[in-house]
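Regression test attached.
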Amino acid sequence: MGAFSMITDNPRPRPRVVVVGLASCFGCQLQITNSEPHLMELLDQIDLEYWQLVTSEDMPDAYDVAIIEGSVTTRESEDLVRRVREKAAHVMAIGACAVTGGVTGMAENALARRVGEVYGDAVPEACGQMIEPRPVDAVITVDSRVYCCPIDARDFATQLQRVLFGSNAVREERALCADCKRNENDCFFNQGELCMGLVTRAGCNARCVNRGRPCFGCAGLSSAANLDSTRQACERYGVPAARFDKALQMFSQVPLSQAGRQGDDEPVAGTAVGKGAR
Amino acid sequence: MTDSVGASPLAVRALTEAPHVMTGQEMLMGNAYRPWPARITSIRELTAHEKLFEFRLTDERVREAFVHEPGQFVELSLFGVGEVPISITSSPTKQGFIELCVRRTGTVTEQLHRMQCGDIVGLRGPFGRGFPVEQMRGNDILVVAGGLGIAPVRSLINYIHDNRSDFGKVTIVYGSRTPADIMFRDQFEMWRHRKDFDLILTVDEPDDTWDGEVGVVTEPMKKLDINPANTFGAVCGPPVMYRFVVEVMREKNISYDHIYMSFERHMKCGMGKCGHCQIGHQYCCIDGPVFNYWEAKNIQGSM
Amino acid sequence: MLYRVMDKSQLPALVRGFMESYEVVAPVKRGERYVFDTVDSPDQIALDYPQTASSAKKYLFPPVEAMMRFDARANLVQDFVQEVKPRVIFGAHACDISGFNRLDLALAQGKYTDPYYAARRAATLVVGISCMPTDTCFCQLMGADEVQFGYDLFLYDIGDKYLVSMSSVEATNILEACCEIAEATDDDRRAFRLATRRHQAAFNPDIPHVEDVPMLMDVFHFDPFWDELGGRCLSCSACASVCPTCYCFDIRDVLQEDSDAGVRERTWDACTSPDFALVAGGHNFRPTGRDRVRHRMYHKLNGFMVNHDRMLCTGCGRCVAACKADIDPIQVLRFFDEKGARDDR
């Protein structure tokens, strides 16, 4: 958006913001509250009209910026994000679930069978009309994204500032390893261990590897990810390529299968699911 | 290598306001990353996407030290949003003011388009190597521009206009997408009556009122009568255009080193450091942006 | 050049001497690898390290560096002073000092001086140490196995002693104050010659010596080799992070939380990043891995040479270890070598 100029002595206009939660653990909304020291400064720049995590009120009818956490898993939430898109000038997807389908996206593969395994024939009504989990941008156009599971509070603040005022800083499309090398971390591959940094979008400063844990790929695939070359690299370092492919499912199941999938978009959920499953 | 090292930390003070003993040149060069405040003094809408901005550097010493060549560029800052390289479209003969023709294509230019006269931006430069006006003196000039490529060559055109007796015949071949996209048309049309000046406008998509050429710039170029011995070419346009334009110029027997092209690259620092604008072994920002065809032929990946 | 010898047992005294007025950074062992880090005792220094994972470039050209503070409301630069810590890089190999010298050419010299780099370089002393090549070292092919300038002291290991090349007053003052040094004897000189020969003989013979590499980079610019090599690129830029001479950077504005002010900072960037050559209109001048890897190698093995008469690559071998896709200058040398061998037949 960048609709507002910072260059002013006067109070800046404050956009009306809503925060919507879809299928997720709500951890990313929680992360926003974790930016405590600066939360008030951030809130000072917007009119927060609705925050699903902290209110039981209904969502207002008019707003400028919609922040969406979570993936689209039902026909109902699909309708919701479409309505949000019609009203908001800017839609921001936050967290892995909203951006790539995230952990919820793992259920994308054989949803009907999984639903049957969990609920048998009696799918609760509260589940709604279940559809294969998908990122928000599979349903509507998304204008900006905050990556990772969960999001980083400072990263969220930066992205929100960019929404408000604009920025020509390039969101890097490269894979993560350069950050890791900058931080002079040991490479897990040198110990024959799998790390998803080879294909994962950079930008988190390798926060997991900095703490001694391999990258799980929560920022999603870099748009320049080279899967074939990565499989070969895995094998060279004694990591079976199949393990890499399996690990990809945790955060990139939806984007990967979207490539091969046709427009099979029929709902498989709600009461109909129980019958069709198994 | 070690000038003065002691127990206390050293400091880079290059960004502090310059003491009064500093010359404007020292202020510009001391830390060439530092943008200097410039006030918007005029804004003219050129097309739906392009505006002509006129700026005046607020510091007198900096303003006087800021002397550019046609074809050079500046880095324009909106702090918090970022910085963009923009070629200077005014002639150095217009002193005290800097004109930039800005297309709305990104966040910085988007915001700039919303600014008003009196607003402050940051400018640093001028950077790069421009058109060799001294060498061009006394010769005919064939200017070929496509789209926004008119911006840097307008600096050259205006320079020639202000030193008219120093140059021979000037021919401008200027291609745009539609008639509404043509910039500085009034100004160019005004010169059309002159015998030593020829303006050929061509568009890809003509409208009902269009009576100029239709199609790519190379077609009208082919019909031109050129004296190759004393003609310099000046070319600027979208990346795809160069190869075809220089081909026609070569067919007209203009020497390799008389064909000058202004290249567009992502010039971030403007000082030959950051690497973004590298073409082969050259830096577009200091070795160019204006290269002659001979140089370009010797740069891997230039065209 | 002035040379003296000092007994190896004096080394801790020399380090402590530097510590009195400088922050000392040196190779230390961390896990399975070696890194340059701040030390507060000579014992922490692992002077016999084979190679560090990353170079000491970070002390002259930090990964993230504030360039200026700005007032976002007024759109003006605020008064800004950056303090530069006087530092000693202790125990740099010749290839890395050569790397500093090449960075000097790119950043400190030419029409524009980068004031941030220049200030750090001026505030940094460099103490070199001789080394033995690893399997991935090819500095001798890149003219970086010996270094004639760019350091303050250089310690050549000649057995029980170091032959010390003294290049600056500051470092010599500290050396003379802290250590007992003597004139080199004929025996010392003989030991130096033998050590140098051992060093020269230890390079990996499987890394081919190829003449006219810059010329070959031009001649084979459109060879399918680059599709194959660049097609493997993971687009991660790990190579640039560990490289002692990659100096490309990005400049970006970072707002403080209230958006009233912020910092313009620069961060390391790399020509292997997918969007590196993207321009405002959306055109990317190097859209593929082939284009980017070839450009990187071209700059390392040709472009810098054309402008500065030396390779930008120092042959330190770090990218060989860092790249998980096996893309490095050695692959390029092998390609040229095989190409030449085929043509000879």
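Expected vs. actual: identical. Residues 24 and 61 of chain B are 4 Å apart (CA to CA).
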